[in-house]
Amino acid sequence: MSENMGLAPPKNPPIRLTLEIVNTGFKQRVNELSGQNMDACYQCGNCSSGCPLAQEMDILPNRVIRLVQLGQNDDIINSETIWICASCFQCTVRCPKGIDIQAVMDALRQIAMDEGIDHFGPDQIDPELAASVPQPGLVGVYRKLAT
Amino acid sequence: MAKIAYYPGCALNERSSHLDRSARDATVRLGFELDELDTWTCCGAVPPVSEERVMNLVAPSRILKDVRDSGRDILITICDFCYNTLKRTNFIIKSDEITRKRVNAFLADDTPERDYLEKDDSLWEDYAGEVNVIHLMEYLRDELGYEKITESLKRSLKGLKIAPYYGCVMLRPQNEIQLDNPENPSIIEDFITALDAKPVKYPYRTECCGSYLSVSSPDASTRLCYRILTSARNSGADAVVVSCPLCFYNLDSRQKAITEAYSDFKPVPIFYFTQLLSVALGVEYGRQGFEKHYVDVTPVLDKIGISTGKGGEE
Lengths: 147, 314
Description:
The complex is a heterodimer of chains A (147) and B (314). Chain A is mainly α. Chain A has helices spanning 19-22, 26-34, 46-50, 61-69, 73-77, 81-84, 90-94, 101-114, 127-132, 135-145. In chain A, helix 2 packs across helix 8 (101-114). The two termini of chain A are 27 Å apart. By secondary structure, chain B is of the alpha/beta class. Helices cover 44% and strands 10% of the residues of chain B.
């Protein structure tokens, strides 16, 4: 785990936000795939404080949403966060604005996969594990983390 | 004996067959039978990641349509993943007309003699979400009634302190599942009380155990399971009860890795709710598949006097 747990890596030089960068259509694509409104988020951080896996993430869930609002697709698609999310719906249940954050993570995974990034393949599985874990685990992992 | 349509799913059919068997043993003693569907396929384990992936809804919809076509309107599942997938698929089919039409177009392809677009006269009826998917525990609570279980008890589990573990997909997302309160549920607690045992309250009962991350990031799952089990143990639990095969795997088998990583860890036996139920209803403990557990359950059975004493049927 890095020292800056949950923080996006600092940019050097820092990014300058322009209308063109923010309006690349990334946010609209996430809205469309997830059925959620990204602009509803007001950064209360409830999703990140309740997330059981927050300590494993490089960008916290509320920051992911902020980056989506700002059109920073590269940061998100190359982050660990979208692949560490286990879709447990804790954030979805607790969001005071009713955003289904789990669906947002699903949408981001799909966008990453559409760009050719798979997180997990059959060659990465421990054979002993593959022989013993109940099938929902195997089917689930390939459906969520690989095209 | 009443027969109720039952979808076991892949895990219960093989790797978690002890969950399946203990459920069948228990329900027969409660006066109804789990009637396995004649044909079934994998439900897909997780609902599709976005609405664009309609194809992922076809398998669960086909299962549900088969149940409807056989004239039944209730389908029981036990695995939490199957429950979540089938119930959410049903919700989408019911509430989203465009998806319903697309899924039914795929389903119609299964019937090659019929041209879906031509609207011929054969008996085809779009699947529109008629089947009610229910969890076995939901059936016990709402249809049978927990008091019926208490009346049928053959063995008392008095003296046992049991920590319920809900996990994630059994309760959430709550607007589609509507089984219980997603943050402060009581369905398993009430079940434990009905068995004459004492439910233990602890803060991690609805926290995720890592789910399928057990395959892709095993260490993350180990840390989560350590937190859950230690919390349950510190609250005085003799054992943890679950209903999901993957929760069971993570909480039980992962204790090997937890013991290696944390020196202060003390193992906690894990039970499926159906195992406790069938033990309490007098099914012999040799039929429960306890040999499949990584953590020895004998200390718990000793406490209620059935492993050393009379193990046979009463």
